[in-house]
Amino acid sequence: MEIIKFRPLLKQVLWGGNKIIPFKQLDQHLEQVGESWEISGLKGNESIVADGLYKGMQLNDLVSRLKDKLMGKDNYERFGNEFPLLIKFIDAHAQLSIQVHPNDDQARAKGLDRGKTEMWYVMKSDEGARLMSGFRKALTPEEYQEKVENDTITDALAEYEVKEGDVFYLPAGRIHSIGTGCFLAEIQQTSNTTYRIYDFKRRDKDGNYRELHTKEAADCIDFSVESDYRIQYAPRRNEGVQLVACPYFTTSVYDLTEPMVLDYSELDSFVILMGLSGMGTITDDEGNESPFQAGETILLPATATSVKVAGEIKFLEVYV
After folding, report:
1. N or C: which end of the chain has fewer CB within 10 A?
2. Where is the Mannose-6-phosphate isomerase cupin domain (predicted)?
3. Can you list the alpha helix ranges (DSSP code H) found in the chain?
4. pLDDT at residue 82 in the model
């Protein structure tokens, strides 16, 4: 088994910016790249292995071939041949719509495969960049409808000026929006189901208002209010700091200035490493070695019992 890297799927969108191409050190000249899909098993948008023994294979074909050796026994029984996570970098040059995602039961009731729970890790964003997550005051469904119709829904949302290292957990049902200037890593269930609630009366490239899903959103919004929607954690050097643990993924951050061995001998899952800053090397227990730097995303198969990370590098670790 090898350390696996994929070709990024770059998404050019009206709200996209110019941070992703230089961050990933790509020799490409594209404008308005809003997303880099780093690892995706979403049908029609499957990642392709970049090099090595499995070069050119689509991710779900790789899962079908390697099964529990790649996924882990329990994960393969649970998810079958579809990779369960969608991993992205997102650069918002303009405000994204206010939106919400259904949970698994709500999605399946509408004939969809699954809902979408996700999280954000904020990277080096523009000064003053802001995002919205959750309600700052209680609303009834009727009040929500009125605020959408009279263009005041943003008044009811919790808004945050963000800095590098901020983390937000977005369980299905939590209303949210990424603001202008935000640059972040996103980890989510493999799903592209989004209910758009409000789009600031903007028009698309053809001059049309984008479709809204106010009724569908109302059926799955969590109207509860929390005092702070950020994840509180204490950053530490040279050890893992867990950020989010939920039924769909567990994510930790590492900020290394010295070599460290990550022990996966008791873990029955693939592991994803997302480079946030710096550079180094990864060496697994079979002696496979790979460079690893900011902007790169690596997939370690479930058969890897340990990896050594050397160099000065900060990264996210994700597994199911």
Report:
1. N
2. 243-319
3. 20-23, 59-66, 68-71, 73-79, 104-109, 141-149, 214-220
4. 94
Query: Hunting for tokens 């020799």 — which residue is that?
Result: 27
Instruction: Tell me whether residue 289 is annotated as binding.
Output: no
Same domain, 248 and 278: yes
Closest to 197 (Cα-Cα) out of 99, 89, 117, 309: 99
Distance CA(285)–CA(247), nearest Å, equals 28
| CA-based radius of gyration for the chain | 20
Residue 273 sits in which domain range? 239-319
Tokens linked to 105 = 């039961």
Measured between its terminal Cα atoms, the distance across the chain in Å is 19
Q: Return the CATH number at 57.
A: 2.60.120.10
Q: Is 93 annotated as a binding residue?
A: no
Same domain flag for 284 and 202? no
The DSSP annotation for 26-60 comes to -S---S-EEEEEEE---TTS--BB-SSTTTT-BHH
Question: Concatenated DSSP letters for 252-301?
Answer: EEEEESS-EEEE-TT--S-EEEEEEEEEEEEEETTS-EEEEETT-EEEE-
Catalytic choice (196, 202, 210, 230): 196
Is residue 29 a known part of a binding site?
no
Is residue 108 part of the annotated active site? The answer reads no
Q: Which two tokens stand for residue 62?
A: 């790789």
Query: Which DSSP symbol is given to 122?
Result: E
The per-residue pLDDT for range 169-218, each reduced to its tens digit, is 999 999 999 999 999 999 999 999 999 999 887 777 777 877 888 888 88
